[in-house]
Each structure stands twice: as structure tokens, then as C-alpha cells.
TrEMBL record:
UniProt KW Secreted keyword: no
Keywords: Exonuclease, Hydrolase, Nuclease, Nucleus, rRNA processing
UniProt protein name: RNA exonuclease 4
Region (Disordered): 1-100
The organism of origin for this protein: Geodia barretti
Family in the record: Belongs to the REXO4 family.
Location, primary (coarse class): nucleus
Domain Exonuclease: 141-302
Compositional bias per record (Basic residues), positions renumbered to this chain: 29-38
Polar residues bias spans: 55-67
Amino acid sequence: MPKRKERPTDIPDQRPTSKLRKKDSTRDRSKHGKRKVPRPASSAEPRQPQKKLNGVSSNWKTLSKSLGISCERKQSMKSSSGGNGRKGAEGKSGGGGGAEKEVWFDDIPLECVDGDLVPKPPEHETRSVSLVAGNDKSAGRYVALDCEMVGTGPGGSFSMVACVCLVNHHGNVLLDTFVAPMDRVTDYRTAISGVSAKDLRGAPEFKSVQKQVSDILEDRILVGHSLQNDLKALLLSHPKRNTRDTSKYRPFKKIAQTRYPSLKKLAKEILGLDIQSREHSPVEDARVAMKLYQLHRKDWEASVKTRLTRREIVERRREMRRREGSTDGGIQKFTPSQTRVLEKPFNVVLHTKD
């Protein structure tokens, strides 16, 4: 085999210089892989920003000379009184001259300010009315109903009518009577209803009071607050087209800002009256409901006529089907425009007397 030639030791390294530079450059890198940049000596002064001459930059002075524009800057407004200036403004001004005038909004109208900060005027007008009854004592076309309840059953959980009141359009009382209880009373609710045990002694029976109320409501417009509770307690049904419930009238809900406005709140917001401060008075509540209806009768009746057109058609079709002799399973036939007496519903629990 041929012998390998030995490389002389005195020959300098022929490796390319780029590799040497790359190897040497790694020494100048930090442990994060970034190359160290030599910092300037401490004697070198940092670069100074371009100074402004007389408050105006030199570039703007040169441009203004070429355009022929005055380069004098307007001085800020000084406050006439030096004692009202803020300390921060005085410090920034560099001494002398006073503080800058603060901005105030006294001359801006309230309508331009944010609506959340300014109380909005009420959309309705609160009227001061009186509940004094008029001279007309006839029933008329409009009557208002209100009932007071007592509690029966365990803990007074069930309601039973104890007092019934009916007033006419002028606020005169048509009927105001207590009702003898059909069940044992466990809670008279005197603090709210104002009914006590002595008031129900010798009171008329429920059937007779129910008949009187049914006769008065016949072919009349019934006004009241939460009438479904009163009619349910009396076991009566009245046509919806002749019912004006102040708790369901949409403009009243908007005024009270709730879906279920109370009669007390409506009386305060619309009539300016404080009612039900202590015991409830059925006469007063019926008069308040009638007064609320009187103030909005025109708009209310207009909304009823447009809303009940379709409902009237459906009721007439049902009435025609009943008259044709269709079997109704023993349910009593009645005309939708009449007040009827209901049987005792299955969901009402009446406890027997001991």
C-alpha cells in the first residue's frame, strides 16, 4: 500500500476565514442567543431632541417663512383671579401668569346633558281628585266592584268572601254588605280586610248576596281592580267585553312601571290619593277604581272596540253551535254577554264546620 503523506507542521491553517469569524462571533452572544452590541462610552452624550425656538419648532418657522404665515402662537387664556387656579396648572406653567381657566357647563341646557343624570318629567299628569259621591243614586251603565276576603283552611291559606261593595258611576253605594261564611274562618285578616268575627254574625247568606250582585251586574260594564279574584270568590262569571280591570290596562302598567300594578300605587301616581294606609275599605277601593276608569274612559273604550272584534266573532260562532243542539256533556248553556252563576269549582276546598 502506498504510504500516506505527512502534512507539514509549519504550513499555516488554510481554513476559510468565514468559519473562523462564525466561531469567534459565538463568543459575543449571550446565553439567550442574541448578539451583544457594544454600548457607547459614558463620555458620549445622548442625542438631544430638536429644540423649539420661542415655543415654535424650527421646521414650522422655515415653512411659515416660505408661506408667509405668522408663526406666533396664541397664548392660553389666563384666569382673571389668581387665587382660584389649581396647583397642578401653576406648576406646569413654569411660574407666573396664573393658572388656565377651568371649563364649566353652567350655560349648557339640561336637555343636552345625559338623560340618566337629569330626572325625566312624568309622561302622565297627576290629578288631585275627590271621592265624594254625586247625587245620582241609580245603577246606570257602569258599576264598580270590590270584595274583602278572610282566610279559611289550615293557616288561612284559602280565601273566602266576607264583604261585598258595589258603587255606581258617581260613586254612590249600590250594595255594601257582609257575607256569612260558608266555612270555618281561621284567619280574619283584620289588619288588611278590617273584618272581625262580630261583623259576620247575623250577616246575609252567600246565596242571597250572590243573587243581588248578579242582578246588578247584568248587562252592565263592570269596573274594578283584579276582578278575577272577586268574581272567583263570588262564583260569578262576567263577559270580558264588559269588564274593565285597572290591573290589566296597559297604560296603567306603563305608568306604574310594573306588570302587576297595585291599586294603591295607581291612586298615588294618577289621582294623587293615599289609600289603604291602614285597613282596606271596599267602598273607597271601588270608588278609586271607578275614578281611574272615568279619567281614561275615552281611550280605554277605543282600545276595547279594536281589540275585541275578533273575540266577538269567536263568541258568536260558539253561541250558534250551542243553539244548533250540540251536546255539551251536561254543561249549562248560556249567552256570552250575560252574567252567570257558576257551580262550586273542583279546585276550591271548602272545609266542613265542626
